[in-house]
Amino acid sequence: MKLDLIKMPVDDETALGASHILGCPDVPAKWNDDAVFFNDEVFVGQINLSEIKHPSLPSEGILYFFFASMSKPYRGIVRYTKNLDDLERIDFNVDSPLKANFDLEFAVKFEESANDVELLGKMPKFKNYKPTSDEVALLKLDFSNYPEVEVFKEYDDVVCYVIKKEDLEKHQFEKAYLANNLN
Predict the structure, then answer these.
(1) Mean pLDDT of 144-173
(2) What is the C-alpha to C-alpha distance for residues 107 and 114, in angstroms, rounded to an integer?
């Protein structure tokens, strides 16, 4: 399913729990209280699964995409929550060890015609990564059309979170990872 990014002015925000790329995540309050995040994590985006219908995904909840910026290559981190009752928006990337314009926020619109973001789409071809037959592209992001996004400016491949088919079937999203050599 292809998605469309819509550039939002920095002073506007998506609704709490809505799908978006960059900006601030809307996480369960318990996650923030329990310190489930690592110091070097960078928020990439969230997808509210109630906004889409896909047989391989739960019908509700939010998938969150992060990466650990101090590991080389970067390590992808995916989290999932079903409970949306106690979401709170946190200024997550303000203390990021990477200096980039993370305050840009892009709303996500679900359309078949988009090509910048794709959820459970065809596995892309990479320069430095050879996917196996049991891997699925959970989320692909092509920031080449968004020169104002500095975080992946030096990278000339799509950013792709991958999950093994078996883990996708079991909804074990925490087993997803970045398929490329982002560093």
Answers:
(1) 81
(2) 13
Residue 65: which of 153, 163, 166 has the closest Cα?
163
pTM confidence score: 0.87
Please report, for residues 6, 30, 119, the alpha-carbon distance to residue 116 in angstroms, rounded to integers and kept in the order given: 10, 32, 10
d(CA 37, CA 41): 7
- pLDDT greater at residue 4 or residue 153: 153
Rounded Cα–Cα distance for residues 64 and 1 (Å): 17
DSSP-derived secondary structure for 23-89: S--EEEHHHHHTT-S-TTEEEEEEEEGGG---TTS-SSSEEEEEEETTSSS-EEEEEEES--TTEEE
Rounded distance between C-alpha atoms, residue 50 and residue 7, angstroms = 22
What is the C-alpha separation between 36 and 145, in angstroms, rounded? 32
pLDDT above 70: percentage of residues in the chain = 78
For 163, phi then psi, to 5°, come to: -140, 145
Helices (H) and strands (E) in the chain, counts: 2, 12
What the block records as the tokens of 160 is 């792709």
pLDDT of residue 71: 74
pLDDT of residue 122: 78
